[in-house]
Amino acid sequence: MTRIKLNGISTRAPEGWDKKETKEITEIIVKELDDLQNLLYAEGKHSILVIIQGMDGSGKDGVIRNVLGNMNPQGVNVSSFKAPTAEELSHDFLWRIHRHAPLKGMIQVFNRSHYEDILVTRVHKWCSDKMAEKRMKAINDFELLLQEHNNTHILKYYLHISPEEQHERLAERMKDPTKMWKYNERDFEEAKLWDIYMKMYEDCFNHCDSPAWNIIPADQNWYKEYLIASQLRDLLKSLDMQFPGIKK
Amino acid sequence: MTRIKLNGISTRAPEGWDKKETKEITEIIVKELDDLQNLLYAEGKHSILVIIQGMDGSGKDGVIRNVLGNMNPQGVNVSSFKAPTAEELSHDFLWRIHRHAPLKGMIQVFNRSHYEDILVTRVHKWCSDKMAEKRMKAINDFELLLQEHNNTHILKYYLHISPEEQHERLAERMKDPTKMWKYNERDFEEAKLWDIYMKMYEDCFNHCDSPAWNIIPADQNWYKEYLIASQLRDLLKSLDMQFPGIKK
Questions:
Q1: Which 149-178 residues of chain A touch chain B by CB within 8 A?
Q2: What is the pLDDT of residues B62-75, one digit of tens each?
């Protein structure tokens, strides 16, 4: 097993990487994605699950808006998982997740996911290490079920930002009148728990790695968007899809 | 009550309407929609329900893709209502619909809707006139509930195409390899029931008119998209929304 250590991974694009050119390439890829998604939907054999995790301010919404949001909304669903409701808490932790598993032909995006049940919950000690271990096993079984029984291809993304970049972004929410509604005092409290969050994330990466996580340098939005768009494009292309003929 | 008669309404843009200019204006409106939707989401006070009905080939998917699909997918949901499942049929006909009512801050799009329960069902005599009358009353009560109890603003669209245009579009599905998967032999059978469909649609328009239906000339996609985009924009602007400040 590869042991992922977050503090050894850069949060930025490689030195000298060309921003302007990258943005142009991303635009082309996003157009390709539109066609590939149409083909995915038409063929109806595969489904895609894109799991997006990251600290507050890491730009989850931006990826969804700029990369995944340019495809046909009839073929792309986004589920945002917030604090569970009373009804959800009366079930196992995967119950509310399973309902949002992608149908064949669809791209499903999880903005946060079942991984919160071994992240925020562990940081705050609502979930013990022993419970977390059991949950990881359940998560692995669940992801296997989707992959083996509904042709679901899973892409897991961790948007990797530096604490400095996060601080800047959270602070901006206090100043920009169009962003104030996103501001939450508690975000700064959570940010203080950075190191323990990183440890819990590493545990996810190292124990729930089928498929493996993609750690995306996310301090620069243009680089993050490029990486995710191109990985999704490569995955879709690899499926060797065909438009079906006329149904008899 | 205004009595809508479909055969008195043109399926095309007014003579001399400029296509190129209209397309340019639509592009600008679609960008405006993106900002307005963000504000709708941020403010979280209103919700929008866009109901799209129309015969096969009238371009429901195109409107969703080109007009509604350019907004942030986290703020726009699309529900496509197909033939009901056994579970759905074991409930009242609005049960499966109500689950998809928009949350505050959201734009919900219905690709077909509860109106099918007084359209296709009546055409095929699965629903009697007497039952249809009761359903219309239930629909009116339901739409009132959404409007009065969750600040839901409802836009109802009928995409009005001519039978000739429909025939052309359905025939294209047989020829274009990227569209064959949409082809369904039964669509041509349904098309033969045109006149009775029109009568049932008129009944919807005339009995379920709070709010009133918008009959959209739909033989030309560019005109249809312009009308719907600008109506949605006007509605959103009329709500006089504000970005909320920092939550205390």
A1: 174, 177-178
A2: 999 999 988 999 99
